[in-house]
Automatic annotation (TrEMBL):
Biased composition (Acidic residues): 441-451
Entries under InterPro entries matching the protein: UCP010361
Keyword flag Transmembrane: yes
Sequence intervals crossing the membrane: 21-42, 128-150, 157-189, 201-229, 250-272, 314-334, 341-360, 380-401, 413-435
Region (Disordered): 440-464
Alphabetically ordered keywords of this record: Membrane, Transmembrane, Transmembrane helix
Stated name of the protein: DUF2029 domain-containing protein
Length: 464
């Protein structure tokens, strides 16, 4: 029978047990998150009413108020223009016009987001009701993220509950469910009681569901598969006599792909044209102010030139693919040094590359990155600097659009440039910072490799 370290729970990693939260602390964390979500809803609701036109659009001067008062949200804005207000079931009856506009219930998001949008609009008749119903649908996902992060990383999860992005962006778009899928995948992989292969397959299903909400969790599937291929922490869960777990890695890839197919297949069969239109819309999307990426801000002077959009349609995805490849290769280099393929670190770095180089960088994407500030131990200077840059961008972009001035005019324009380029520079720095970080994931309920336990016992055992 294995000897237990004095003062350390059986199966615990020494030095980590103190970071576990009590049930009361977890409840407080969830309460703080709920309060932040309520503040986020109250901020967006300032743009609703007090009167409504025949389409249920808020009056008076909805658009001007949304920009000048910094209470704009895509949720409220898309009430009119996608047949959401008409309660049309998404994708089945629609398509995309020659000018790139969508019709017949098609929305520009993957199918699970489209289904969530339809549910939020089902029993309401104004943009205010749609915002409220959508917030009620999404809020539990935000609270669940807090609970999972608290279980994984202890008090560091307060960053999710207390950081400004949750107030600014929780109900800006439909992003809380996809963040929940990504965090739940980490939780299942690192706190489940089953063998690694089983836990990873379950995590891959969640990542596949996340892909069907908002695509980006698909970036994390290959790093997870490589983690399984190489046997997890310290290679301790490789099949006997094997250097690699090929079957486990393929199971991870297959589970994620199968989940994506199962989510999309009913919509593709019911109305292929409408289903495909959402993908075509994104492929045709131009680099312009609405995309808010470095490609727009860096090339504003030539954005209307012949061929520019076609070039960006190639350059941006190739750059994202190269950054993803670099992150995965860096993970293998780290595995050879440490014995463990760091799938969470690689996933975080890959997300940095995506946020920086993709032609669309909407403000609420900060919610995607925020859990990695909890799960990975990077210097607090990185975290604070990014949140400040994001705050400057998230507020000034709408104020600047409302003012209608030039990019060199006034404090708002300067704050916007500081936010846009400061955030971009920080993403460049966070790419290696995440790769070089250690995980804060609390693995108290995971048994460490046998050799590590025995070695620790031998070093701490009193002389006979």
């Amino acid at each position: 029978m294995r000897e237990q370290l004095a003062g350390t729970p059986a199966g615990a990693v020494p030095g980590r047990a103190g970071r576990r939260l009590t049930a009361g602390a977890l409840a407080l964390l969830c309460l703080l998150t709920a309060l932040a979500l309520a503040a986020g809803y109250a901020n967006k609701a300032r743009c609703t009413g007090p009167e409504f036109d025949q389409w249920g659009r808020s009056e008076p001067a909805y658009q001007e108020r949304a920009y000048s008062e910094v209470c704009y949200s895509d949720v409220q804005n898309l009430w009119v223009g996608r047949d959401i207000d008409r309660h049309v079931f998404p994708y089945v009856h629609g398509g995309i016009d020659e000018d790139g506009s969508l019709h017949g219930g098609v929305v520009e998001y993957p199918v699970l987001s489209g289904l969530l949008i339809w549910l939020g609009a089902l029993s309401v008749h104004t943009d205010a009701g749609f915002l409220a119903a959508s917030a009620l649908l999404m809020a539990p996902f935000g609270v669940a993220v807090a609970w999972w992060l608290g279980r994984l990383s202890g008090y560091r999860a307060l960053l999710w509950a207390l950081a400004p992005p949750l107030v600014l962006y929780a109900f800006h778009n439909w992003d809380l469910p996809v963040v929940a899928c990504a965090v739940a995948a980490v939780f299942v992989v690192h706190r489940g009681g089953a063998p690694l292969r089983t836990r990873a397959v379950q995590g891959a299903v969640l990542l596949g569901a996340g892909f069907a909400f908002k695509i980006y969790p698909g970036l994390f599937v290959l790093p997870l598969a490589l983690h399984v291929l190489t046997g997890g922490r310290g290679g301790a869960e490789l099949p006997a006599g094997r250097r690699f777990d090929v079957r486990g890695a393929l199971a991870v890839l297959g589970a994620a792909a199968g989940t994506v197919v199962l989510a999309n297949l009913p919509f593709a069969l019911a109305g292929f044209e409408g289903w495909w239109a959402s993908f075509e819309f994104q492929s045709q999307r131009k680099v312009d102010l609405s995309t808010n990426s470095i490609w727009y801000w860096g090339f504003r002077g030539v954005a209307d030139a012949d061929g520019f959009q076609q070039v960006m349609g190639v350059v941006s995805p190739v750059a994202v693919l190269l950054s993803f490849t670099a992150a995965c290769l860096a993970g293998e280099w780290l595995r050879r040094r440490t014995g463990t393929y760091p799938w969470i670190q690689v996933s975080a770095a890959a997300l940095c590359g995506f946020l920086l180089l993709h032609k669309v960088h909407s403000p609420q994407y900060t919610l995607w990155l925020l859990p990695f500030f909890v799960l990975l131990r990077v210097r607090w200077g990185w975290v604070v600097a990014y949140l400040l840059a994001d705050l400057a961008m998230g507020i000034s972009i709408f104020r600047w659009m409302g003012e209608g001035g030039g990019i060199g005019d006034g404090f708002t324009a300067q704050a916007l440039m500081i936010g846009v380029w400061g955030r971009a520079a920080l993403l460049v720095g966070l790419f290696p910072a995440f790769l070089g970080s250690t995980s804060t994931v609390d693995e108290d309920e995971q048994e460490p490799p046998e050799s590590d336990v025995e070695r620790t016992v031998q070093l701490t055992r009193s002389p006979r």
